[in-house]
Amino acid sequence: MQTVDFFPPVVDDPYVYGWIAAANAMSDIYAMGGEPFLALAVAGFPDDLPLEILGDILRGGADAATEAGVVIAGGHTVTDAEPKYGLSVSGFVHPDRILTKGAVMDGDVLFLTKPLGTGIITTGIKRGIASADAEAAAVASMRRLNRGASHVLRQLPEIRACTDITGYALAGHASEMALASGIEIRIDTSLLPILIDALDLAGAGCVPGGTGRNRDYLTMADADGVTRVALASTIDERVAALVFDPQTSGGLLFSVAKSHADAVGEAFAVAGEPLWMIGEAFIGHGVHFS
Questions:
Q1: How far apart are CA 273 and CA 30, in angstroms?
Q2: Mean pLDDT, rounded, for 13-18
Q3: Domain limit, last residue, from 36, 70, 92
Q4: Same domain, yes or no, for 114 and 219?
Q5: pTM of the full structure
Q6: Are residues 125 and 232 in the same domain?
Q7: Which residues contact 150 (CB under 8 A, 6 or more apart)?
Q8: Structural domain of residue 235, as residue ranges?
Q9: Together in a domain, 182 and 259
Q10: Residue 126: which residues within 8 A CB-CB, separation 6 or more?
Q11: What is the tens place of the pLDDT at every residue in 119-156?
Q12: pLDDT tens for each residue of 176-211
């Protein structure tokens, strides 16, 4: 497996930023049921900032990789007007155990492994209005590797489909699963796990630009009048912002037959990994939030 991901800072602390960017980059491997083992660092850095900042970024990424058992074997940097950092990651997976977006089946239930709201909260951090508690919760979530959740999934042969939630938001990544699987996914927004203060910040209009772009694209009707994502008219606008919120280092979204749902919940509880059941799959198309 091979993947690459990098982005500008989402928090002020360069070490924490480096850690989060590395965790985010490794997430794609975990989402496919794989184990990352090797990475190359990719960085852009302004020539008018102290190199100590770049060192802290690289150290944060290296420590995240060490926790994952990944070796950063080298990398490449360029001069850029804004800092950017991430990893190109290589991983292994058994060819019979690859998790894909296109394996959701009628009757499956959908689970999520991390709460939502990191895009809204990091926007609040940039604007100086996010509380210390909200910042701490968002940082802890973004720094948490998807390694533990992925390891649990690999022990459960019943798991068929999985993806991770990142910049395309819950709505976008769920729509990719629905489209690839030829299925309809219904998500109950009352079941969604939400980071502290994320709803209040959304209500105050503190949302990143990607939220609107995600919503415009995903709710735009095609030539046949069909949309990828539909929201019930009763959904609070703050919640609507949340489901289109671009996530950084978000959780895993996966499906399993309803008959195995209790066993999955027990396996995650034993491993000490958080888990929320948020929806179901039916014959149909698209994603519907109620």
A1: 14
A2: 98
A3: 92
A4: yes
A5: 0.95
A6: yes
A7: 30, 31, 33, 34, 35, 252
A8: 101-289
A9: yes
A10: none
A11: 999 999 999 999 999 999 999 999 999 999 999 999 99
A12: 999 999 999 999 999 999 999 999 999 999 999 999
Say if CB 191 and CB 277 are below 8 A apart: yes
Which residue shows structure tokens 């994502």? 229
Domain count across the chain? 2
Question: What's the order of all strands across the beta sheet hosting 184-187?
Answer: 161-164, 252-257, 108-112, 276-282, 184-187, 286-289, 229-231
How far, CA to CA in Å, does 124 sit from each of 88, 117, 172, 204, 235?
Answer: 29, 11, 22, 10, 23
Task: Give every CB contact of residue 116 below 8 A, 6+ residues apart in sequence.
Answer: 165, 170, 192, 193, 194, 195, 198, 242, 243, 245, 247, 250
Beta strands in the chain (DSSP E): 2-7, 35-45, 71-79, 84-92, 108-112, 161-164, 184-187, 229-231, 252-257, 276-282, 286-289
Give percent helix, percent strand, percent coil of the chain, each to the nearest 5. 40, 25, 35
The CATH number linked to 37 is 3.30.1330.10
Do 75 and 140 share a domain, yes or no? no
Helix axes 209-218 and 118-127, enclosed angle (nearest 10): 150
Last residue of a domain, one of 92, 118, 148: 92
Whats the size of the chain, residue-wise? 290
Q: How far apart are CA 253 and CA 99, in angstroms?
A: 11
